[in-house]
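Hello,

Our lab assistant flagged a job as stuck in the queue for most of the afternoon. It eventually completed. Since we weren't sure the result was trustworthy after the delay, we are filing this so someone can double-check. Below is the sequence as submitted and the structure that was eventually returned. Let us know if re-running is recommended.
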Amino acid sequence: MAILGIESVVYGVDDVALCTRFWDDYGLVRADRSIDEPVWELPSGSRIIVRAIDDPDLPPAHFQGSGVRECFLGVDTAENLEKLVARIAVDREVWRDADGTAHFIDPDGNPMGLRIWAKRPVMCRPDPVNAPDHIVRLNQHRKWRMRARPKTINHIVYFSDNYVEAYEFYRDRLDFRMTDHSKANGIFARANGTYEHHTLFWLTTQHPGTRGKRGYAHIAFGCEDVDEVMVGANYMQDKGWSNVRPFAAALNRHRISSAMYYYFPCPAGGDAEYHADSDYLDDAWIPRVWEMAFGATIWGSSSSGFFAHKPATYDVQLDPDEASLEACRHLGKDGKDVPSIY
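-- returned structure --
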């Protein structure tokens, strides 16, 4: 039963016009130029949909302000969709649309959906990268870019009161695979029908940086290469969008997934992440458990906030049996069980 990734994300926002300008500048391509409910479609077929925060068709919000109100996962066949729906319906309500789309609420209160998706292959041809005495691009100039045009929705990050239980729900009901565990911080998991390092990441609400937050944290868009990330970041800043945020305001690379990233605070809620050169995995991958701060970034002097603090220990271990989950199953609600990172 294959879930192919994120088919669409629906936002409820305070200012539709402002969010429309943001996503247009970000490099997404409009599929529906409606003023009230604009839609953007990426080359993979994934969609971003923006609606007014009081739209009666949106699911009820369990957080304050603008943000993701529903996320739809794409399933390969109708038969597999019905099998997944049957698993979910064991202990929670599932309601259906006329086209067969299934809706449910996950353990953290996030409205989610499943629907059949004809995901499209993305044709990327990144330029080879030269290095001293390693010439792989000879007599060939790099391609010229004017704008970033993200290709996929790589992943979405949610805040979770109990990220172990959240992950286990998606593992047991929807066949997600754990790829990495940032100990006492969160779990990265891959949908079984995609090679991307993670489709979902559940970030604990229990450490000081995220205490009590609800809903979603950010969404990541896959770009062809680092050049596209750079061009997108420069264009956004030229258009007046600030990249100042609590966690990181610089071009950097996540150690835990190898991905190059650049975040922008998004008026639709949370952050929008340009994302390139991530690890891609299959079922031969062995999950790892990392010390919380160690996997977050490759440290640089321009990092700020959380990412500016070097970890006390540099530790990563293979975790083929997911044994690390038990120690983090019941993080103290007062935060006493969570290492301080500030």
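-- support follow-up --
The delay was a queue issue, not a problem with the job. The result is valid. Residues 226-238 form the longest helix (13 residues). The helical segments are 16-26, 78-88, 163-174, 226-238, 324-327.
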